[in-house]
Amino acid sequence: MFLYRSINGYAEAEYVIEKSRFIAHASPAETPEEARLFVNEIKEKYRDANHNVPAFVCGAGMEHQWQSDDGEPSGTSGMPVLRLITSEELTNIVIVVTRYFGGIKLGTGGLARAYTHAAKLAIEKAGICEVRESVKLRYSFDYAYLAKLQNIAAEKQIEISNIEYTETVSADLICDSSRKDELVSLIGDLSGGKALLLSEEIVNAKYCK
Predict the structure, then answer these.
(1) What gap in Å lies between CA 9 and CA 30, rounded to an integer?
(2) What is the pLDDT of residues 25-42, one digit of tens each?
(3) Rounded distance between C-alpha atoms, residue 13 and residue 4, angstroms
(4) 90 near 55, Cβ under 8 Å?
């Protein structure tokens, strides 16, 4: 079941215009507290920069939104980045755009475009994904079935993780919760009914194109 759109992971992108460097840092953040921690980390790392402009959106309903111009003219930096995030319908994301001033003023419109462009580059590099309510089934099965399962998983949008090798293979299999019966049937057919279900859990999982 679809929940919201977000980014797949951390990414950094740089944009240079009129000798000013704009370094955009994008990261997943599920809570405002997590987002603010990331903002503080970037500000500390780039404390010699002229500006570290932050914006974040958190919550499945995009209910937590915040931005700051960090010393840039009002409305020229933080708000354009926030508008970019919301226009892409992204949440649980934080972006900080670091600026090293190059000595040439860009004007209010130029600043807004530069901050937006840098942030967009970071989002594209991070990769947009869908977060869906998913089911995580942990199975134990014979080694003979692992390669076959791995070949099928990519086609069926099944994530395989936490593989353990003992007398048998144990692994977590994750798919959209609406496809649980399909996954159970697939494993049953693949193993001839010999795979053992160890545990079941509902989780939020990312699906990227």
Answers:
(1) 12
(2) 999 999 999 999 999 999
(3) 24
(4) no
DSSP codes joined into one string, 49-96:
SSEEEEEEEESTT--EEEE--TTSSTTSSHHHHHHHHHHTTB-SEEEE
């980390």: which residue's tokens? 41
Instruction: Return the amino acid letter for 15.
Output: Y
Tokens describing residue 141 = 């099965």
CATH code given to domain 132-208: 3.30.70.240
How far from chain centre, in Å, is Cα 92? 8
Sequence-distant (6+) residues with CB within 8 A of 121 are 13, 14, 15, 24
The CATH architecture annotation of domain 2-126 reads 2-Layer Sandwich (3.30)
**Residue type at 143 in one-letter notation:** Y
| Torsion 105-111-114-119 (CA) sign | positive
| Structure-block tokens of residue 154 | 């990519």
- Tell me the per-residue pLDDT of 148-204, one tens digit each, with 9 for 90 and over: 999 999 888 899 999 999 999 999 999 999 999 999 999 999 999 999 999 999 999
Give CA–CA dist 64/41, Å, rounded: 20
Alpha-carbon distance of 72 to 177, in angstroms, equals 45
* Long-range CB contacts for residues 184-188, cutoff 8 Å, separation at least 24: 184/137, 186/152, 186/156, 186/158, 187/137, 187/139, 187/141, 187/149
Hey, what are 111's tokens? 């600043």
Type of residue at 91: T
